[in-house]
Amino acid sequence: MEEIQAWEDLSNIPPDPPVMREICNKCKRPAIVCWCSALPPQRLNPRSNIILLQHPAEEKRCLRTAPMLQLGLDEKKFYIFKGKRFPQPRHENLENLLKHPNTILLYPSKTAIDIKELENEFTSYNLVLIDGTWPQAKAIYTASPILHKIKQVKLITTSTSDYIIRTQPTEGCLSTLETAAEALSQLECDPIYRKQLIEPLHMLCKFQLDNGAVTHQSKEFLLKTKTYPKLIGKRLSKLLKTTNEYIEH
Ligand SMILES: [Zn+2]
């Protein structure tokens, strides 16, 4: 009897292998780790535009936040351009955007002013952000002279990143999503961006933690406690120490 049952079970196995993983067609992630349900109920529609200049390596990271930003905002309010320097001939309309008088660049240089101190010269801004690690962002900035002419702003925030999975270069250093959400809330005087845009990130972090991902402490913390140099080697450790000086809290 058991043997017959076993043969029946075998004959019920479909001849084709099962579909490996169902992919969400919105966020392009496997359906079981899709964060789309945490997106704002309706795409947010700020007065200002977000212009993301993305380093090509950023797109390949497994935990990246640009798609969360893209899917959380109205399509007409979000632009993304990829490259190691900007603008290039393939970056349609970018040069125009970058030359616009209401364009501002979020970049923590010595001349950057606190975004809160922008006098309301314009009702809306084109807010340019560089998406990449700090050394990548610096390289993009250096290779793109047009960016040097744009009014530079910085975010003064004391909150530590929610993006706890990906090791942050320094305490208070935010992911691109968190940076854009915070900047929009300050520019538009509306907390909705800060609250709603980062929800997919919370969901992703929770999922990763529930599934055994390690909560990384920031590189700054690890450097202070001297556990990091062993892991990364002397050269990178030295580099991180110098780049920390550029990031203002
Ligand atoms: Zn999805």
From TrEMBL:
Transmembrane segments: none
Major enzyme class: transferase
Keywords linked to the UniProt accession: S-adenosyl-L-methionine, Transferase, tRNA processing
Reactions that this protein is recorded to catalyse: a uridine in tRNA + S-adenosyl-L-methionine = a 3-[(3S)-3-amino-3-carboxypropyl]uridine in tRNA + S-methyl-5'-thioadenosine + H(+)
GO molecular function: tRNA-uridine aminocarboxypropyltransferase activity
Enzyme Commission number, as recorded: 2.5.1.25
Keyword Cell membrane in record: no
Sequence ranges assigned to domain DTW in this UniProt record: 20-213
SMART domains: DTW (SM01144)
One annotated GO biological process: tRNA processing
Signal peptide (UniProt feature, chain positions): none
Protein family according to the UniProt entry: Belongs to the TDD superfamily. DTWD2 family.
Protein name as it appears in the record: tRNA-uridine aminocarboxypropyltransferase
Origin species: Pararge aegeria aegeria
Organismal lineage: Eukaryota, Metazoa, Ecdysozoa, Arthropoda, Hexapoda
